[in-house]
């Protein structure tokens, strides 16, 4: 005879029995369809994966973006005087990628003036200019990584961003505009050089400070369209 997973009572209605599974001391009712699938080896279709806590991380944490750390580094670059009490070495010793990239992209945006090719040029100069400074620093005996140079050069574009709106106001005054440009370049170069040029260079500091200064002059020339 054939055994059916249901019974027929005298009134002609079909009833299905409840199947109970003992899981860890608790009984869970299963329907006939569920039992049928399990008996045929298709129980894996009914399994539900538990959510992995690591998959529920916030987007900023997933991308390794620390806004507080970026904000602190911005302040360190904009206020490079040691007397202010900032631990400026964190810009070099704890490099990140997203902060400098945001600064470079923002500088590219304000440098547009209808010349869209400037954006790719600024990003290219940031990457390869930092590579040049890195190679020169290593040749001179400096203990610095490329990621550190990339971060410092990127963050140190902030002074040029600060003077940008001032140049729009005083652009018609050539002498004042030139002084502000020199001030911005010296500010950016000093901020970067004070982080990258350590005591290990000793008497060779000018050999690294000079190309850093030239690099920011070129960045400024891309902004002004010279």
UniProtKB/TrEMBL annotation:
GO terms, biological process: endoplasmic reticulum to Golgi vesicle-mediated transport; vesicle fusion with Golgi apparatus
GO cellular component terms given for this protein: Golgi membrane; trans-Golgi network
Chief localization: Golgi
Top-level division of the source organism's lineage: Eukaryota
Record-annotated Yip1 domain positions: 86-221
The entry's keywords: Golgi apparatus, Membrane, Transmembrane, Transmembrane helix
Keyword field contains Transmembrane helix: yes
Keyword match Glycoprotein: no
Name listed for the protein in its UniProt record: Protein YIPF
Organism: Grantiella picta
């Amino acid at each position: 005879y054939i055994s059916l997973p249901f019974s027929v009572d005298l009134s002609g209605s079909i009833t299905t029995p409840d199947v109970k599974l003992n899981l860890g001391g608790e009984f869970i009712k299963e329907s006939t369809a569920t039992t049928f699938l399990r008996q045929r080896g298709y129980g894996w279709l009914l399994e539900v994966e538990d959510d992995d806590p690591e998959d529920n991380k916030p987007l900023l944490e997933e991308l390794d973006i620390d806004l507080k750390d970026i904000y602190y580094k911005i302040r360190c670059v904009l206020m490079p005087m040691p007397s202010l009490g900032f631990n400026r070495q964190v810009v070099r010793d704890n490099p990140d990628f997203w902060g400098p990239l945001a600064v470079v992209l923002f500088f590219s945006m304000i440098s547009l003036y209808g010349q869209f090719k400037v954006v790719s040029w600024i990003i290219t100069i940031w990457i390869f200019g930092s590579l040049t400074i890195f190679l020169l620093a290593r040749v001179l005996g400096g203990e610095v990584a490329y990621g550190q140079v990339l971060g410092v050069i990127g963050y140190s574009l902030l002074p040029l961003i600060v003077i940008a709106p001032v140049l729009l106001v005083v652009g018609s005054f050539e002498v004042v505009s030139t002084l502000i440009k020199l001030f911005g370049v010296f500010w950016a170069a000093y901020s970067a050089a004070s982080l990258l040029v350590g005591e290990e260079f000793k008497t060779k500091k000018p050999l690294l400070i000079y190309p850093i200064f030239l690099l920011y002059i070129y960045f400024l020339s891309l902004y002004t369209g010279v």
